[in-house]
Every structure is written in structure tokens, then in C-alpha cells.
Amino acid sequence: MNFKIILLASCLVLSQAVITAGPVKEVKSKGKAPKNIILMIGDGMGTAQLYAGITALRDNTNIERCPVSGFVKTLSADDYITDSAAGATAYATGYKTNNGYLSVTPDGIAKETILEMAEKKGLSTGMVTTCAITHATPAAFVSHVNSRGSYEDIAAQFLKTDIDVFIGGGWSHFTKRADGRNLADSLLKHNYVVARTMDEVMNAGSGKLAGLLADEHPARFSAGRGDMLPKSTAKALEILSANKKGFFLMVEGSQIDWGGHGNDLNYVVEEVVDFDHAIGKAIDFAAKDGETLVIITADHETGGMAITGGDMKQGKVEARFTYGDHSAVMVPLFAFGPGAEKFSGLQDNTDVFKKCVELQHLNSK
Ligand code: MG
Ligand code: ZN
Description:
This protein is of the alpha/beta class. It has helices at 47-56, 84-93, 114-120, 136-142, 151-158, 171-175, 183-189, 198-203, 228-240, 256-261, 265-289, 349-359, and strands at 5-8, 36-42, 68-73, 124-132, 165-169, 192-195, 208-212, 247-253, 292-297, 301-302, 305-311, 316-321, 326-327, 331-336, 345-348.
């Protein structure tokens, strides 16, 4: 099954493609530990997906502002080809697990996540995604289950954390539950503002914020989601940066993966471009702040995508997909800010967790 699609970027998402600053390539505060970490995961974003986005943006991307790059090996405990649950578990806990498992080992032992460790140290924490907030990638940072499809259980586990901000979809997993509980009410009792629209998200004050913007998943970029991801990223940074001790924020470009599964180049490109706009918000913040490490990577590649032609000046790209699932190929990583240099070279996905924990001193007493 070899698809070939030609894409003209001009008909896409470029109306909002305002890159906010020129290249800032120096690593700020070199040698110092980062106070804040922003981990950005492009689900299914291999080098081909990324380069398609770079081409659509006519070689003017935020990700290129990162001075450090590397590669990540993604295999899971039980499979040469990881899924998003095991992939996110590696980033969240530093442990390899089986596909489908979330922050438990293959024998079912729960492992503390970097988000939980950050909370314990008094840091603020947050997550922003373009899928249901209960979906595998974000779920690995707050829940411990051996089946990624246990969405209602995962939603309930949000209440066991002290997460300050989460924005994505998944309203139905909090409110239309088999056990009859209404977790939106529980969130209110835990002093969250519960937002159902982007306006409500942007108008939220400085306290805790739960943005549940779709019953299930927010729409794809071109079907009405718009700039929810970059805006939500900026809002989360505004809330989290109030904590002088620092913060940990995970941002996911969730639907790059779905474009790959669908062998849909337009879908891949619009989601990568949107993700790059969110990367811009993170790097703008980090460049100004000087104490924030931004890491941009992926959990795996999706679609076995290859770029078979294009034109950088016209923002035009052609691609073929080799099939409709994840592939085993290593994925790219980019880093900006203090500690960025630790992430160059080839590393395991579990190493990313270990480096973050060390840099943010999350293991120290
Ligand atoms: Mg995901
Ligand atoms: Zn996938």
C-alpha cells in the first residue's frame, strides 16, 4: 500500500504561522540546572513528519531555534515497536514497560512519575494535549494502570494527583461514567476552575485549571481546533510560572500520530505545524526566563513515512507511507535552555527521564 500525496502548504495553516522571534541558538545559563522543564512530545513524529512540517513552513520553524539535537531509541519492554503507552511510560518513569501499560512495570508494579516527583518537591505541574487528557501519552504521567483503555479509571486518578493545570479533551471520562461519579464536581471541590471552552481557559485566573474542551478528543487542527495547543501552552506557562520553586509541564502534539495512521500527509503536516507553534511559545518563555529547559521529542514514528519530493520555497512536499502503524525507527530530540547539552547524541527513551530528574534534582532529599 503505497500512498503518494502532493501537498501545497499555502492552503494550510500558514495564516497563523507567525514565528515570533529570530534564531536564538545560544544555550542560556550554561552549566546551571534548570528550574523548570517543558517536555514536548510529538506523538508519531519521526524525522519525515518533522521535515514535512519544516517544508510547509518554508524552513522557518521554532524547533530550529534549539541548539542541541539528538536521537532516541523507542523500543518497549515487550516489543521492538512501542505504542504510545509504553513510550510515554519511559519518559514519565524511566522504566520500560509492555505496550498498553501506563507507568506500571510489566509485572504490575506502579512507578512514580516525573510529574508526581515534581509535585512532591513543591513544584507546579501541568499537561496540555490535543487528545483526551485520559489518552495514553498524558495518562502515563498521572496514572498507573495495565490497560491504556481504562479511561474512566485514569480520569479518577487525576484526582489523586496535585496537578495544577491540565488542558485537553476527555470531558465524558470525567462526567459520563459507569460508576455514576461526576468528577467535574470533584475537581471543583479540589479548587479547580473547570473550563469547557478556550475562552474559559484563557479567562481563568491564577489558580488550578482543568480544561476539558471536548467530550472525547478535540478536533484536528483544520476541523475547528484552531490554535488551542499554542494558546493553552502559553496559558499553562502563565499559571505554572507563578511558582518560584519551578514547574514541570508536558505538552503533546497528539494527532501527528493519527495523520500517520491514516497515511494522510495533510493531517500530519497541519499537526506538525501546530506543534511547532506550541514549541514557539515554550522557547519564547525559556529564552526570556533563562532557567527553563525545553525538550522536544516523540514517542515513536507512525506510518513509516518517507519524503519523496518537494519544494522548500513553495512549501510543497510529497510523501509515501509504508504502512498504517508505528515503526521502530529512532526519533529526533531537540533541546533548548540550561542542561540542553546533556541530550545530544543517541539515547534511550528512559535516559530522557533520568537526565530530567537529575537536572531538576527531583531525587534529592
Ligand atoms: Mg499520544
Ligand atoms: Zn499511534
